[in-house]
Amino acid sequence: MKNIQRAAGYRRVSMREQVDGHSLDAQAVNIQTYAQQQGWEVVEIYTDAGLSAKKDSHRPALERLMADAQAGRFEVIVVDKIDRFYRHLHGLLTALDQLNQAHVGFASVQERLDFTSPWGKLTLTVLGMLAEIYIQNLGQETRKGKLQRARKGLLNGSIPLGYCRGNCSACTDPNGPDYCPRYGQPDYCTEKGKIIPHPIESQIIKLAFAEYATGQSSDAQIADLINSTEVPGWNGQMVHFRSKGRPGHCPPGPLGREAVRTMLQRVLYAGKIPYYGVNENGSKRRRSHHIELFDAQHPALVDYAVFKEVNAIRVVMANTPRTGPNYPARIFPLSGIIRCGYCGSTMRGVSANGYRYYRDAGQIEHTHDCPQRLVNAKVIEKVVFQWLGKILHDPNEIARQKALAEHYEQAKARFQRVQALYLAGELEPNVYNQEKVRFGEIGHTNPLQFCDNANRIALEIFDSSDNGLSPSLTIETRKALRLVLEALFVRGNAIVGIEPTSAFAPQLTKNLVPEGEVFCSSGSDGIRTRDLGLDRAACLTATPRPRTGQ
């Protein structure tokens, strides 16, 4: 290696609150002192403030440092400690290999390590491995801490909209001064770490859940309702509902559609603390994919049953259009299930001349040509419910469904035991995930839920006028349908294929068509895919025709 004359320093802190502290200055002093002792001139000290040294972390100053090393701006890099440069062994060794190829040395002040010597290289490898082990252990300890807080019913993370700490006498919450009626009064909560309902924000949460539970309002409509509502606030003044805001980022203001959507999916409003853990690759789980729920210490703003009902409605009403208050709702129970029997595209509910229809989505969006014509909603819905009502209320079918329900409860108990072992750290993640998939396949449906309501739903839907069905009926109808059918393929007003759920596949394949409505020309296995353009393995089909022409 050529004689060293020019040196570059690199310093880093990982926590935002350290940026204004003394750590960066201390590192710079140590780097300068070490370089002077070696007779090197420090041409620049590169700084990444408030950034992590984990794997795949983005550090602008480090990237510029490596580019300048390749350009030959200096002959050695000096750091105060190895973990300031990298905490991940593979990343550390990769960077050092790049420096070696560029004939740039590396030195660490605290470890007294010189990369140019053989012993220095060996020491560097050991220290890099220890740094990686440290950050892995730190992540594990952090997850353990979060799990323990969840078990105690304590919140992990910032205080959400709807709650506050209750320190009213010294409140610094953005929604305190000139907004909260309790601002400046004696403290409502003195326990550290506890949260209580905010007197105004909590009303937002209750209003949103109550409105969505009707099945008639979208997220955007609820946001508009919240933003237009006034309530008594500080000193009796009338104030508009508003978001909590983020100090230093954005002030409190109107709520948007996305804020309402997120709000309705947060189970902590139902008095539960979720624990998410991590995926096998170490990434965070989605908010809807928690591992376990624990009872929270903070008061619930909505009943847990209401929370589950609202999120069930979100699923079944995902493709249902909402209308304004002066217009009747057009309800389409088969939305999300009905498909085109020609091209396989989904079909959407549309209204024309006061009647309801299902139309090929590709035709609506003009993405392809398809011979599918408008499907009369009332006709196809009547055929489907007469057929399912007859099949699923057969005594033999009810007995089969009860047996399935018992099997489901046994599988649920087994999965809960496995889950407890996993949370206790006594089970590997891959074993837990395998058991989770197995339980998901068994517990995909609860067969008895359909039979409890099918007769009443069928009678009401047959007697409904063309002006539309009641929203409450539609929610129950679509819940029931999704328990039985994954997909329903039609051509005109005729059913040409079905894809049942796993729980109902055995019974539906034996009774593919309603008596007196259509006839079946399927093979001996009850499957026919000819002329449908569908995968035989993916769809159990019948090829029915109505009595009258299509």
Which terms would index this structure?
single chain; 550 residues; alpha/beta; Hect, E3 ligase catalytic domain fold; 3 domains; five-stranded mixed sheet; 16 helices; 17 strands; disordered C terminus
Describe this structure in words.
The chain is an alpha/beta fold and 550 residues long. It folds into three domains: 6-148, 3-Layer(aba) Sandwich (Rossmann fold); 163-316, Hect, E3 ligase catalytic domain fold, CATH 3.90.1750; 338-394 and 460-510, no CATH class. The protein has 16 helices and 17 strands. The strands form six sheets. It has a five-stranded mixed β-sheet, with helices on both faces. It has a three-stranded mixed β-sheet with strand order 12-16-17. Helix 7 (219-228) packs across helix 8. The chain is extended.
Report how far apart the termini are.
86 Å
Decide which structural class fits the backbone.
Answer: alpha/beta
The major beta sheet can be summarized as: 5 strands, mixed
Gross geometry: extended
Q: Please state how the strands of the largest beta sheet are arranged side by side.
A: 2-1-3-4-5
CATH architecture classification of the largest domain? Alpha-Beta Complex
Please identify the top-level CATH class of the largest domain: Alpha Beta
Number of helices: 16
Number of domains: 3
The CATH topology of the largest domain turns out to be Hect, E3 ligase catalytic domain fold
The radius of gyration over CA amounts to 32 Å
β-strand amount = 5-15%
Q: How much is the average pLDDT?
A: 76
Low-confidence stretches: 444-468, 513-550
* Range of helix content: 40-55%
